[in-house]
Amino acid sequence: MSEELLRSFLGEKNYRKIEAIGNGTLNDFLVKYIEKLKPAKAFVSDDSKEDIEYIRNRAIESGEEEKLKTEGHTIHFDGYYDQARDKANTKYLLSKGVNLGPNINSIDKDEGLEEIESIMAGIMEGHELFICFYSLGPNNSDFTIPCVQLTDSPYVAHSETILYRPGYEEFKKRKGMDKFFKFVHSEGELENGVSKNIDKRRVYIDLDNEIVYSMNTQYGGNTLGLKKLAMRLAINKSSREGWLTEHMFVMGVNGPGGRVTYFTGAYPSMCGKTSTAMVEGERIVGDDIAYLRKKNGEVRAANVENGMFGIILGINSKDDPGIWRALHTPNEIIFSNVLVAEGKPYWVGMDDEIPESGRNHSGEWYKGKKDSEGKEIPASHPNARFTLRLDSLPNRDPKMHDPEGVKLGGIIYGGRDSDTWVPVEQSYDWDHGIITKGASLESETTAATLGASGIRRFNPMSNLDFLSIPIGRYIENNLAFAKDLKNPPLIFSVNYFLKDEKGNFLNSRQDKRVWLKWMEKRVHGDVDAIKTPTGYIPKYEDLKELFKSVLNKEYTREDYIEQFSLRVPENLAKIERIIEIYRTKVEDTPEVVFKTLEEQKNRLLEVQKKHGDRVSPFDL
Question: In the annotation, is 132 catalytic?
């Protein structure tokens, strides 16, 4: 029956594409939602150049994107009040009795399904439905997760053809599969080209059936299902299957003699994640999400995505030369929520002077324009983005699409920390690193972007917002992952935001290049380190040499002492904060977390008795 309905609705050409896949589960899924959503017509993409071009053209014809002066560049505007992830209305559909912990926003499954189905009923009337297939992770690989996206937004469909690997052929290869990720999105009724019914904006996640519903929104974080929404599905899936889904970049650091060592890194927002992944002279594999699997006694990492949905605020030629060049080259790029004047995009923090007027997410814009609440509207939204393929970046690593992933040498955890962590440090071992660095990760808020400054936000592995399992189980999964490995990746922490007593930063933005080179050498045992109560830190002579060779910069003993002295009271206070959080807010915390933190506390107290509150690395 489903085949007859599909054939009559899709038409012969589109139906043949679905028929070639030969998947009954897919057919039933399509019929169910076509009947529910009631689109006027549908288009099936088989990832051919012709089909991708059709989606691009529909994005322009519909007005969801407009061409800019540079060839291949387009602009998209979201609604004024549809500019960020809707955390309040992003919920898990959970059956009665299922509890994923206090950080999980959820709704009773029956109640949530009833609500979302009511919202979905006929929501695509008069719209065109795009049926698209993608792969998370490299194709033809153990990392691959096939996905199908239903959307009535050509902008969303176009974005995902840039951000993700094509998946149509993957579906054809796996004819018998009955499990794949499914995404149902509708922008809903439009007014002036943007989603009108924001009060009915909902993003509901069904973990049991691996399906995400997203309604009445266009903003990428709510609609590009394969990004953080798919990450939630994958965290749940990997937890059941014994691998890891992490909010991490993947990059290659060039070592001596042509050696390349691969790292992943988890950093909360505004802590240097993208700038590290894009460091000049190194290799980017991915900037946001990684899958980690064990193969033949090694940890292999793969970039889930094919592109970058990056924040454009502050991108300039000095600090971000690779991205800057890509954004000024004829190429397929979607700018969103920036200022456009005479066909050119402008954003806050760029090199060029911003015009006095133009068009942005608020409509016609002029300097000093205020919204209905009296707030001044900036030229570009603080969350304005760019969407591009990683292949367009000059430092894209050739192993990015390797079905085997890349062998992982190290894992980095970084936060915004003005007074505690040293700039770079290695953990004693895997468990010590996961607990004292990953599971203890905090980041200070900044006045410019997040309200009151200096408030420390607990964010284990920089993944708190996206967990679909209890925090305790997530930490246990990370600990267990390396149990059977003889040589697991080394674990490091970095802190680019350490300050002196006067509030001045102790490092420049470029110093991270030195920390990366030191970590690369540690993975291979090329340099020794000093053992401290919190981990291993670099020796002065090694950093002096690296600062000279990498940055052509003199590095003084005074700088080293200031940056790498152990700040005992601050470290003790951090341990107390973290223990309190796990004791009072995480019911299923593994006991080894408390044991490891207490041991670190005792080591700090010992050294404090001997050397005082501030301990020079030369005394250790």
Answer: no
